[in-house]
Amino acid sequence: MADLLTSPLHDRHRALGAKTAPFGGWEMPLEYPTGVVAEHTAVRTGVGVFDVSHLGKAEVTGPGAAAYVNACLTNDLDRIGPGQAQYTLCCDDETGGVVDDLIVYRYSDERVLLVPNAANTAEVVRRLAGSAPDGVEVVDRHRDLAVLAVQGPRSDEVMTVLGLPVDHDYMSFVEATYAGATVVVCRTGYTGERGYELLVPNESAGAVWDALLEAGAEHGILPCGLGARDTLRTEMGYPLHGQDISLDVTPVQARMAWAVGWDKPAFWGRSVLVRERAEKPARVLRGIVATGRGIPRPGMSVSLTADVLVGEVTSGTFSPTLRKGVGLALVAASVAPDAEVGVDIRGRREIFQLTKPPFVDPSVKES
Predict the structure, then answer these.
(1) Angular region, 135: left φ>0, alpha ψ -120 to 50, beta rest
(2) What pTM did the predictor assign?
């Protein structure tokens, strides 16, 4: 793993006994000695903290910066104002496929912060910088900022001990100060639970991480790795780029029309996506839930009958909350959205029910 980037918290993860793995060009914690199920359960019932510093950070500044970003990415940035964040997609202009999905932090008309996925940061920056108008600058800041995610129904209690704000709305952010450092506190997350994502200067990340674990001790806080992050997001039906969405999968196919500003005059991929939406896609992303004991995994085939293939699993896991297999699959649009299908699990056809995620009740937007 010598060529991989590491988080400013890397030594702390090692001290905690974390099992690490390559992810998006980074060496990141996969799980701690407590295990994925315990970490998952802590987030669903109490609180957990993730180091997600591998996430990209890119700043777009200059006159008309927000308008420029809005003309490139799918969602309508004019729907939000300063101090708000928005989920959006960067699509390929020719194919409509998803280059990446990301969060946009709107500071002002002249300053926008983007948080893309680790593996795609350079490509998103390249595309934005390549067509930026005079006066608009796109800067990769992934080496400047760490990202910590405090997630779970007891998140507020932990944040309050540190004096960090908890009274702002979902998908909004505020700047606060902790131990002399400016911390951006955003009401976002990838788990389905109430929580926060903190953007912290690298040099202050250790102090904030330590304080969060200390403040959360009485609430059963656990450090959580990417394994639990994946089971949590799959239970919510949140897509993962490279699996559920990609350059080969459009927002229309992924049933993510809600993240597209269809009335905007311009964004990358608009003409292709408008046409596909009108003509209807040949395949769509559906949720799948096991009726038996089968656990789906990416790449497994999906069939309507034993000899009629209709798609493929894109994400799949054992749900610690439901105690059964759940996942996402790209299937033929002609298949009824509540049909029973078979998933080929090591040569055995296991029955699953198509359904609409989330698979568990979300609390992410609770005030």
Answers:
(1) left
(2) 0.96
